[in-house]
Design a protein that fits this description.
about 180 residues, 7 helices, about 70% helix
């Protein structure tokens, strides 16, 4: 017996993609496409939390884009993946001030309740900034490597954009978890 094809009701990611594609279409035009995409990603993370946010939210911008006119060509795939990577980066930039505020609060608490026995405590804000700078270097190098291994093939641009999307989405979801759980 052949199973019936999956429907939106049986595929949670497909349902989320459809819902957020409709939300994207309904957002006011003055915000701009990048901000609209970032808003959709943030809404998806809030809706999907604490389930597998990456599986449910990655692709909500690029999948409908690739399904549109020209989206299945190499150039179209690259543009759609880069568009979503840029949106994840915009969400990361929105999260950053809240993460730094939280890190500074931890630093202030550490200064008033030093139970370290005289050991020097690293600054949470300074270590967060250092970790983020190192992560950016890692992400960029990793994605340049993904580009390089494709040689002169036209798919190298797609590999680079897919890498940037995946790594940035993972970082955003990690930061989201910190913000939600207080970690």
């Amino acid at each position: 017996m052949i199973d019936p094809p999956p429907t939106l009701a049986t595929r949670p990611k497909a349902l989320l993609v459809a819902v957020f594609a409709l939300l994207l279409a309904a957002l006011p035009a003055q915000a701009g496409p990048l901000q609209d995409d970032a808003d959709a990603l943030e809404s998806c993370m809030i809706t999907a939390w604490p389930r597998d946010v990456l599986a449910l939210c990655t692709g909500i911008v690029s999948d409908p884009c690739q399904a549109g006119p020209g989206g299945s060509s190499t150039r179209g795939m690259n543009q759609c993946l880069a568009r979503e990577a840029d949106a994840w980066d915009a969400v990361l930039n929105r999260q950053w001030p809240r993460l730094m505020t939280r890190a500074r609060e931890v630093d202030a608490t550490n200064q008033t309740t030093d139970n370290s026995g005289g050991l020097a405590l690293d600054s949470a804000a300074e270590t967060l900034r250092g970790a983020q700078r190192a992560w950016i270097v890692f992400r960029d190098a990793e994605c340049r490597h993904n580009y390089a291994i494709w040689g002169m093939g036209s798919f190298r641009t797609v590999a680079h954009s897919a890498c940037r999307l995946a790594l940035t989405a993972r970082r955003v979801v990690d930061f989201h978890a910190r913000l939600v759980t207080g970690g």
